[in-house]
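Re: the 122-residue chain
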Amino acid sequence: MADSNTTAYHPFIEREAAGEHTILEDCEIDARTHESDKASELHTHDETHIIFMRTGEMYWEVGDEGFHATPGDTIVTPPDTEHKFEVVGDEPSKTLCLIAPARPTEDQGPSGTHEITKPDDI
């Protein structure tokens, strides 16, 4: 029978953390909290981004498709594909983003450079 002692267990993403970033050999994992007043500008990446919705609601546009995402949904943005998002509602949205392949060392770190505060008229 396997040892069920989990005292040495330490999650790499803390439940209440606003954001964490882990770099592995071939990919990056970015856990992010997007506040309710956030959106992103239309942008692209050189890498594939696979976003897992953990909490909240977001509207995503990826290429020619738009959809409302809720916890449990997965959003895939292939390389060089225009995309953007907007947090929907008054609650923050937590996401987990797998970035592959890992970006060049000088570009690694938490995502969010495309995130903006939504204008009042959105």
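The longest strand covers residues 48-55.
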